[in-house]
């Protein structure tokens, strides 16, 4: 397995340390080859820890920044029922962020540091959350397409080799399934409504389709991390493989919605047995990743404001914890 050759034991270590490192590497290689789980206190290669921290922290940031496009519509939801469903969904995303920050913390990075990186604009989060939500139908399109893509990408992550990440993903995926259903239902209702409502739903699907396909990451031949992450059983499938599966799922569901996908090149390739789609604008993707998407600066700015406005809550929680600890010590 590739992972077994990547970590050479550093020469400057003492013989005892070298022996410990070699034993740790052997244990790690066995766990990976048995498709079992690495836990926080287990020995792991520095590069494995680094790639997990990279992926999990980006994922956590995506959930937190991902609250903004939908939170933007809570006050404008068309009914009390829709408002409470949307509020619950946005709260779920906050919960997902917290599970994931906790999983990342087990790798030795503090949550404060991750948050500082995010609000300093130094951390990545999913490209998808840099697009604006301009109509109510966007709540449907986000639930159906964005949460749909998230599920497709994240169900295999439930089997990720790092225990805390895999376990967090199990709970997250259950909630994402509900999110996708609620998005589908919003679009279905609009699609069966007036001609203007149906058009609003179609317009939202047209705008969110390509960005949701790009959520799966760059094409495989331009994905520097995939090979190693797959060798370590973090990722189970390549970016293109998951993107193709997602297209296949959407093709079926869009028929039920009575809408269309804005891609005339979708087809099932009988030879490869894979769904194919039309070209995506990877320059746009790169621009968004470079911070030049439609909403990048607004998203980070709002997060910074929220963090600063929430300082008193954090201070109060610390003061309360201190007081409780003093009480317990005095008892
Ligand atoms: N956006 O070599 P690869 C959600 C970066 S949660 C931004 O292929 P990898 C729930 C990548 O980080 C959505 N950056 O990388 C929700 C790397 O940069 P780096 C988030 C992207 O890690 C719904 C570089 O490009 N989901 O939606 C993107 O092997 C509604 C090269 O790429 C996750 O994070 C992108 N789309 O594969 C919440 C799932 N794609 O770090 C609210 C977990 C790639 O070298 C509302 N993550 N990059 O500087 C993963 O599965 C993987 O990390 C991938 C990328 C597949 C995203």
From TrEMBL:
Q: Which GO terms describe its molecular function?
A: phenylacetyl-CoA 1,2-epoxidase activity
Q: Where is this region: Disordered?
A: 1-21
Q: Does the keyword S-adenosyl-L-methionine apply?
A: no
Which SUPFAM superfamilies does the protein's record reference? Ferritin-like
- Cited InterPro entries: Aromatic_CoA_ox/epox, Ferritin-like, Ferritin-like_SF, PaaA, PaaA_PaaC
Q: What class of enzyme is it?
A: oxidoreductase
According to the UniProt record, one GO cellular component term is: cytosol
Q: Which GO terms describe its biological process?
A: phenylacetate catabolic process
Q: Which Gene3D superfamilies match?
A: 1.20.1260.10
Q: What is its EC number?
A: 1.14.13.149
> What's in the keyword line of the UniProt record?
Oxidoreductase
This chain belongs to which protein, by name? 1,2-phenylacetyl-CoA epoxidase subunit A
Its lineage reads: Bacteria, Bacillati, Actinomycetota, Actinomycetes, Micrococcales
Q: Which gene encodes it?
A: paaA
